[in-house]
Amino acid sequence: MILEDEATKKHLSMYKKVNNKKNMQILEKDINKLSYEDSISELETILMNVQDENISLDKIQINYIKGNLLLKHCEELLQFVEQEINEINPEFLNID
Predict the structure, then answer these.
(1) Mean pLDDT of the region 45-50
(2) Domain around 46
């Protein structure tokens, strides 16, 4: 589930005041629904956006915040998988 352009535009208008805690919680909730792969894709899109020389300061700020939330989400997903892997009991694997 990749955030579509319309959703991104909605977020941009909704988060013009990025310091608004409620808006941040909504954005974080949307990001938490993403898979790891979708989150990485969103991070790649942000990277391309910030490389644009004509990007406004507001969009830079929004991309920075969204990027940090996406990065945090990816780290949490990786930690969860790592924990699950560490909990696998080799006796159940029947490896010869």
Answers:
(1) 91
(2) 35-86
